[in-house]
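The instructor's notes for this session suggest beginning with a concrete chain rather than abstract definitions. Hand out the sequence below and ask the class to guess, before any prediction is shown, which regions might be ordered.
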Amino acid sequence: MKRIMIDYMKCDGCKNCTAACMQAHREEQGTIYDLDLTDPKNESRNHILSDGRGGYRPIFCRHCDLPECVMSCMSGALSKDSVTGVVSYDVNKCGSCFMCVMNCPYGVLKPDTLTRTKVIKCDFCMEKGGEPSCVKNCPKKAIWVEEVQA
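After discussion, reveal the predicted structure:
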C-alpha cells in the first residue's frame, strides 16, 4: 500500500503542494498561471498551517490503515481499497452527515465551501496516474509517497 508521508521539519510553507492540488482538481481547463486561488470550486485537499513558532504543519490525508472516516461513514460513500490502500470517496453515495469530517484524527476532511453537501478529500490523484500532484510539486521533498505494509 502507498501512503503520503510527511517530514514537517522540511516544510517551508511555500504552499506549492496546495496550489498543485487545486490545479489537479480544477473543473475548468487551464494552467497554474490562470488558476483562481480564491474560487471555492478549486479547493485544495490539503493545507499548510503555521505552528506559531516560525514552522509549518502540512495537513494531508494519511489514507490510514484503519480509517476513522470510513468506519464512521453511514452511507458507504467512503471506502478503503485493500490493494492500493487509498481511501476513496463517492459523492453520489454521500449523505452529507459529515461524520467523516468529525472523526478524522488529522483534521483533513472538510465540507466543500461552495455547497457544503460533499466532502473535500484527497483522492491520491488516481485519475492523473496515481502520483499525487502535491508530492510531485514539493520543492523541499517534505512530502513523499512510501510503500508500507498493511
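Then share the key points. The longest helix spans residues 16-25. DSSP finds four helices and eight strands in the chain.
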